[in-house]
Structures are given as structure tokens and as C-alpha cells.
Automatic annotation (TrEMBL):
Residues 742-773 have a biased composition (Low complexity). Residues 679-817 are annotated as: Disordered. Residues 698-729 have a biased composition (Basic and acidic residues). This is Serine/threonine-protein phosphatase 4 regulatory subunit 3B. One of its GO terms (biological process) is DNA damage response. Residues 679-691, 795-806 have a biased composition (Acidic residues). It comes from the Eukaryota. Pfam families: EVH1_PP4R3, PP4R3. It comes from Calidris pygmaea. GO terms for molecular function: protein phosphatase activator activity. Residues 143-646 form the Serine/threonine-protein phosphatase 4 regulatory subunit 3-like central domain. Residues 5-101 form the PP4R3 EVH1-like domain.
Length: 817
């Protein structure tokens, strides 16, 4: 109750003798220790900050004006005024001031004013009790318009004018004049009335709004606002409001007060949004009460509808009834959309109750049905409602979806319906899909998941999502990167796979990749399992060949996030699957172009160098250095080589310090005896103990393929040696890349060993003798040092290695060499 009674605006008088609004807040009269006396305090209603702290001095002259104003001077040139929303609040504070000064509250001024102060008060704009309004006649309209526009700059005069208009029922008289002017086609009079009515709106008084926006007056007010003097022809707002704008009752509203409120709110909103010009910076506060008027009307409408459970139940029943025709359903969904939009005006606790009411009535199952419908408008409105729910409480939506999963198939789960809507968006710019992707991201974001003592929403929901929904989300990605979908370019020397990605598909794949990249960052365990089981990174990297650079960059960003985690499981998966090949091919295909793709690829390698990710450095240098060493405009690749060689030296020193008896005999691996990073090097070709946690990658090729790929490689090598070409990485005439590595994670163990030499071995005869001899020396050194390492560690798959070594005597050495 005291809130509105104590609500005040604080004004100070500026140098131009105009009153400046210092803000709105709530006033209190309390003892302030620092000031050693009773003081007036005003705290801002927006943030609670102190707008005013003024001690009530026994000798200060306080003046009470027009029942709601208290004015006083604090210093020679510092005048203050409090303008109260209600007379009762003004009386209450006035009594307190009089009490402190020992005066009778019936006085208008608490002190006898000295002469100068008397003059000073007289100078204040118009302190006479009321403004005298001219008589309401046609020939006085210009005078009235001048009066209304002249008071707008002075808060006190605005208050007085508002009071005068209210007391004399002046607005209704003005609107009668409007009808006369319109009948007489008196254009000048109509232009004056436009200025008058616009000025009255800018007085910002709720009591005047009540009169102007009543059923009997509002259409005439709109009529006055049609005659803007700056327009050649008047607008036809009334025609629109009465004929074009139709009020649709999805279910008849029996409460006449509610109907009237809905009509009034629509019309006032129309006045604010359409008729009145956008206020300038100086006029922004002029319409704050109009905004509040609309705001409180909306709160009232939502509350009245919410309390009428019979009405809402009926709406829901019709929405989900299969017999409801499409037009009716469209109207019902649009009603709910507007209803949810209005609910944003509620206070947090009331909004909470509002959404709980909707949840109880079954909004989510209803949305599930509606979102799957063919009608685009209905789906779009349903998506907006869904977004309100997700923003309000992602947990409520997650809980519903998990309960639903126990009773129905994956296809009709709400989240899968959402994903399918995202995938099937027909808009070329995918506007709806972008909105849905944002909602999905909110739902799968662990940051807003609750963790209580007895249940962890995060693990439960993510288990559900990866089991029931992830396959639906990745389906378009897997479909567009499968081998039968990516055709080879016929009659070309390129064996590059071209993705069938028109712009819309590319946009969709980019959205899916953005979501998967988010998962890599936030769902460590679940997404790791998924990537490795589905060999997902290999499929994503097919998109590096896309003609749409933004899609290639999305694929690269996905890989960059994975590498950014510096997780050895991922690193081993990348090296075994030889997944740097598509990235390096994209860099080389990009040629000398200095663009975002070039920078992004180089940043990826620079990150690996700076973070010193040893397993990846070794893999890159051993397999791709010959192709990359010509790139000298950055020092990244030389830096990788340096890091690699430093590590090799360090390993050799460690090996040399091991007693010879250990080097000649095999003994079992003992993790404690090896440093972690050494173990990483030695295990490069092994499956690690940790693989038990992450299920193995699905095998796309068998180990048996290895001899075939090796023979193909040897044929390619011979064909290549007979050609006299520049020593630059290119695709071979046989149709393969220079880096012809096995494209399966399982074959990588064997095939990698054989093919790892392809870059070195295929140095063309055109290269300098120096570089050839350097390669030869390197190979000899590598082979020579291999023997000393073999006996050091007992590997679980040593037998396989031995067989492979018989086939491939030039198998790449382990990094310890």
C-alpha cells in the first residue's frame, strides 16, 4: 500500500530556471546518524540507489503546492521539489516535516519567507493554484494548442494543466469539438486538435489516460491523431481499427470486463506503436506512463485468463483434439503465443505460477502434436511458445522429455520432433532452424542443469539424449558424407570427394556442426564415446572439400575444439585414422590464397606447436613434413620439426642411459618406470588400457586390406618415379593423393606403417641431390636406431607387428628412435 503512496519524482531547478527530473523512487522520513537529524530519503525504484538525502533543517522554508508537491531550497541556487503520485503520501511527509519544525500541518509554508526567498518562489514557473484554461470553442483551439505545448518543458506546469483538464472534464469537450471540425471539414482546427491531443498524451498522467482510452473516447482520440499537420493526407487509423483489425475469440470470453480490457490494450498499443511518432531522446520519459498503462493492462489480462481454468482447459482440449480443423488450430496456437508474450510482463513469482499452470494443463504434449503439423504458420507459432518455455525452465522441458521416453518411440519424442523441424526447415536462410538450434543448445547445456543430492539431471539427461536423440541430429551429416553420396569427379586427375551440398544443405550441416562442437566442449565423456563409435571426425572432415568455405571452416572448427581438449584418446584416434590428411590437403589446395581457411588451418598447427602436443607433432612431422616444409611465410611447420627433433634427442639420451642388459632383453612394460610422455610415444601404435572406457571405433576396413593397399601404394610409387615433376605436393595421376593413407581407423596400424614413407619416398628426381641425400641419411639413421628399441617394451600386439614388418621392411619406426 505504501508503495504507491510514497512514490515520488525528484526535481531540481537548473540554471535556466527549468525543473530537471532526477528520477522516480520511494520517499521516507528517517533519522540519519551521519546528518544528525531527521532526513528525507528517496531511493530509486529501478535499482534502489539513493536519489535524495536531505536533512530537514528547522529553518528551511518548505512549501506545499497543489496537494502533491513539496518545494524547498537547500542552498542559494539549489531548489528541490518532490512530486507525489498520491495526495495521501504528500500529506504524510508534510506532517513529518511540520513535526520536525514544530509547525501545524495545515500551513502551506513552514517558515516566514524573507524577502529574497519570496521573490525567488514567485519566480518559480506559475505557482498560482491552477492554470486557467481558455473556453473550449473553435476559435480558441490555437490558443489551447499553444498552452498545451508551452507547459511540456515544466514539470510543475504539466501537473497543473493535467489537474485543470481533469477537473473541468475538458477532454470530452475537446472531442466534441473534433466531431464538429470533422463535419465542417475544418482542416486548421483538426491540425490544432492533433497538437492538443498529442500534448495531453505527453503530460503522462494515468488519470487522463483513463478518460482518453475509455470506450466512448478512444476512437475520437485516434481520429484527432489522424490529422498530423506534417502529412498531406490524413491517415485512416480508425478504419483499420474498426474494419481491418478483427478480434478473434478462439473460445468465447464471457467476462465483459476482460473483453473490454483486451480491446483497450490492443488499441492503446496501436496508438503507441503505430500512431505516435518514435519519441526523441528528450521525449522518452513523456510516454513512460503510457507504457506502464499497457503493461498493467497485460498483467491484468493474463491474471484474469489464468484464473479462469475452465477457459484454458477448453483451449487445450480443442488444441489437441484431432477433430479440430486447421484454421481453428492455427487461431488457438496464435492465442497461446500471444498469451505467453503477455506473460513476460508478470513478476517472476507470478510468471512461475503461470508456466506451472500451463505445464499442469499439458502445454508440452500439445506442442509436440502441433510442432509436427504441416502448416508453417502453426509450426512457427508453436516454436515461439516452445522458446518461451525453454527460456523459462529448461529443466521442466527436460523432465517431460525423459518421462515421455519411457512410454513412447524415439520418433515422436519432443526433442526429436524439434530436431526434425530443424532439419526439414524449408526457409532458404533456415531462420526457424537457427531458432530451434538455439533452443536445443539451451536444453543440452550442462550449465543450466540441476544437481541435487539424490539425482543428477546432467548424467540422466545426457544419457537419454545420446541414446535417443543424437542419431537423429547427426543423420543429415552422416548421410551427406557417406561414400556413396560423395561422388568422384569424372575425367579429372582429382580423386577429391565432392559433397552434394547445395547452399541450404550446407547451412544445415553448419548448424549441426555448431551444435556438435558445443557438445565437444561441454559433454566430455558422452561425445567422446559417440565420436569414436561412429568415426564421426572422419565423416566431418569430408566437408573440408565443400565448395562452401563456411562449411569447411565449421568442420575445421570441430576438429580444432577436439584438439583443444588435449585429450590423448582423441589424439590417438586422430593419428591412427590419419585425420590430418584432409586438413593438409585443404591447405595445399587453397594454394597461395591468404584467406580465413588458410589462417584457421595454420592456427590449428600453431596451437599444436605452442602446446607441445607430442603425439600429434610426431605424426605430422613424420607423415607430412615434406609437403609442408615449402610453407615458409610462417615458422609454424619449421617449429614443429624443431620440437620433434628435440624430443627425439631427449628420447635417445634416455635410451642411452638405460643399461645395455635392459636393451638386449625383453621385459614387460612397467608404467612406473616410464614417464608419462615417454609412454605416450611408445604406445603410439598400441591400444591403451583406457580403451575399455571408450568403446572401440567401428571398423570400416579389416587388417587384411593392408597388403592390397601396400601393393597399390607401390604401383603408385613406381608410376610416380617415372614422372619428371616438381617437388611439390600434388595429387597423383593414378588418382590418389600423394598421402595415400588407409581411410579406416582399424587399418591405420598396418597401413600407416607402410604409407608413412610415401611423402619421403616420392621425392621426384627433379629435387636437389642435397635433399635426396638428406632423406637417405634420415632413413638410414631411422632404420639403424630401430633395433635398439625393439626389445625394450613388451607390446600386447607384438605378433601382429612382426607379421607386418615381414610385409613392410620399411615400417615407420616408433618415436623413441
Amino acid at each position: 500500500m505504501s508503495d504507491t503512496r510514497r512514490r515520488v519524482k525528484v526535481y531540481t531547478l537548473n540554471e535556466d530556471r527549468q525543473w530537471d527530473d532526477r528520477g522516480t523512487g520511494h520517499v521516507s522520513c528517517t533519522y540519519v546518524e551521519r546528518l544528525k537529524g531527521m532526513s528525507l530519503l528517496v531511493r530509486a525504484e529501478s535499482d534502489g540507489s539513493l536519489l535524495l538525502e536531505s536533512k530537514i533543517n528547522p529553518n528551511t522554508a518548505y512549501q506545499k503546492q497543489q496537494d502533491t508537491l513539496i518545494v524547498w531550497s537547500e542552498a542559494e541556487n539549489y531548489d528541490l521539489a518532490l512530486s507525489f503520485q498520491e495526495k495521501a503520501g504528500c500529506d504524510e511527509i508534510w506532517e513529518k516535516i511540520c513535526q520536525v519544525q514544530g509547525k501545524d500541518p495545515s500551513v502551506e509554508v513552514t517558515q516566514d519567507l524573507i524577502e529574497s526567498e519570496e521573490e525567488h518562489i514567485e519566480e518559480m514557473p506559475e505557482t498560482s493554484p491552477l492554470i486557467d484554461l481558455p473556453t473550449c470553442e473553435l476559435n480558441k483551439l490555437e490558443e489551447i494548442a499553444d498552452l498545451v505545448t508551452s507547459v511540456l518543458s515544466s514539470p510543475i506546469r504539466r501537473e497543473k494543466l493535467a489537474l485543470a483538464l481533469e477537473n473541468e472534464g475538458y477532454i470530452k469537450k475537446l472531442l466534441q469539438l473534433f466531431q464538429v471540425c470533422e463535419n465542417l471539414e475544418n482542416t486548421e482546427g483538426l491540425h490544432h486538435l492533433y497538437e492538443i491531443i498529442r500534448g495531453i498524451l505527453f503530460l503522462n498522467k494515468a488519470t487522463l489516460f483513463e478518460v482518453m482510452f475509455s470506450d466512448e473516447c478512444i476512437m475520437d482520440v485516434v481520429g484527432c491523431l489522424e490529422y498530423d499537420p506534417s502529412l498531406a493526407q490524413p491517415k485512416r487509423h480508425r478504419e483499420f481499427l474498426t474494419k481491418t483489425a478483427k478480434f478473434k475469440e478462439v473460445i468465447p470470453i464471457t467476462d465483459s470486463e476482460l473483453r473490454q480490457k483486451i480491446h483497450q490494450t490492443y488499441r492503446v498499443q496501436y496508438i503507441q506503436d503505430i500512431i505516435l511518432p518514435t519519441p526523441s531522446v528528450f521525449e522518452e520519459n513523456f510516454l513512460s506512463t503510457l507504457t506502464s498503462f499497457i503493461f498493467f493492462n497485460k498483467v491484468e489480462i493474463v491474471s484474469m485468463l489464468q484464473e479462469d481454468e475452465k477457459f484454458l482447459s477448453e483451449v487445450f482440449a480443442q488444441l489437441t483434439d484431432e477433430a479440430t480443423d486447421d484454421d481453428k488450430r492455427c487461431e488457438l496456437v496464435n492465442f497461446f503465443k500471444e498469451f505467453c508474450a503477455f506473460s513476460q510482463t508478470l513478476q517472476p513469482q507470478n510468471r512461475d505460477a503461470f508456466f506451472k499452470t500451463l505445464a499442469k494443463l499439458g502445454i508440452l504434449p500439445a506442442l509436440e502434436i502441433v510442432m509436427g503439423m504441416d502448416d508453417l504458420q502453426v509450426r512457427s507459432a508453436a516454436t515461439d511458445i516452445f522458446s518461451y518455455l525453454v527460456e523459462f525452465s529448461p529443466s521442466m522441458v527436460r523432465e517431460f522429455v525423459m518421462q515421455e521416453a519411457q512410454q513412447s518411440d524415439d520418433d515422436i519424442l519432443l526433442i526429436n520432433v524439434v530436431i526434425e523441424q530443424m532439419i526439414c526447415d524449408t526457409d532458404p536462410e533456415l531462420g526457424g532452424a537457427v531458432q530451434l538450434m538455439g533452443l536445443l543448445r539451451t536444453l543440452i547445456d550442462p550449465e543450466n542443469m540441476l544437481a541435487t543430492a539424490n539425482k543428477t539431471e546432467k548424467s540422466e539427461f545426457l544419457n537419454f539424449f545420446y541414446n535417443h536423440c543424437m542419431h537423429v541430429l547427426t543423420a543429415p551429416l552422416l548421410a551427406n558424407t557417406s561414400e556413396d553420396k560423395c561422388e568422384k569427379v569424372v575425367g579429372s586427375t582429382k580423386s577429391n570427394t565432392i559433397c552434394p551440398d547445395n547452399y541450404q544443405t550446407a547451412q544445415l550441416l553448419a548448424l549441426i556442426l555448431e551444435l556438435l562442437t558445443f557438445c565437444v566442449e561441454h559433454h566430455t565423456y558422452h561425445i567422446k564415446n559417440y565420436i569414436m563409435n561412429k568415426d564421426l571426425l572422419r565423416r566431418v572432415l569430408v566437408l573440408m572439400n565443400s565448395k562452401h568455405t563456411f562449411l569447411a571452416l565449421c568442420a575445421l572448427r570441430f576438429m580444432r575444439r577436439i584438439i583443444g581438449l588435449k585429450d590423448e584418446f582423441y589424439n590417438r584416434y586422430i593419428t591412427k585414422g590419419n585425420l590430418f590428411e584432409p586438413v593438409i590437403n585443404a591447405l595445399l589446395d587453397n594454394g597461395t590464397r591468404y584467406n580465413l581457411l588458410n589462417s584457421a588451418v595454420i592456427e590449428l598447427f600453431e596451437f599444436i606447436r605452442v602446446e607441445d602436443i607430442k603425439s600429434l607433432i610426431a605424426h605430422i612431422v613424420e607423415n607430412f613434413y615434406n609437403a609442408l616444409e615449402s610453407i615458409e611465410y610462417v615458422q609454424t611447420f619449421k617449429g614443429l620439426k624443431t620440437k620433434y627433433e628435440q624430443e627425439k634427442d631427449r628420447q635417445n639420451q634416455k635410451l642411452n642411459s638405460v643399461p645395455s642388459i635392459l636393451r638386449s632383453n625383453r621385459f614387460r612394460r612397467d608404467a612406473r618406470a616410464l614417464e608419462e610422455d615417454e609412454e605416450m610415444w611408445f604406445n603410439e601404435d598400441e591400444e591403451e588400457e583406457g580403451e575399455a572406457v571408450v568403446p572401440p571405433v567401428e571398423k570400416s576396413k579389416q587388417e587384411d586390406d593392408f597388403p592390397d593397399s601396400y601393393e597399390k601404394f607401390m604401383e603408385t610409387k613406381k608410376a610416380k618415379e617415372s614422372e619428371d615433376k616438381e617437388n611439390l605436393p600434388k595429387r597423383t595421376s593414378a588418382g590418389g593423393f600423394k598421402f595415400t593413407f588407409s581411410h579406416s581407423a582399424s587399418a591405420a596400424n598396418g597401413a600407416n606403417g607402410a604409407n608413412s614413407k610415401s611423402v619421403a619416398a616420392q621425392t621426384s628426381p627433379a629435387s636437389s641431390n642435397g635433399s635426396s641425400s638428406k632423406n637417405a641419411t634420415l632413413t638410414t639413421a631411422v632404420t639403424a636406431s630401430k633395433g635398439s628399441l625393439v626389445g625394450l617394451v613388451d607390446y600386447p600386439d607384438d605378433e601382429d607387428d612382426d607379421e607386418e614388418e615381414e610385409t613392410s621392411p620399411r615400417k615407420r619406426p616408433r618415436l623413441g628412435s
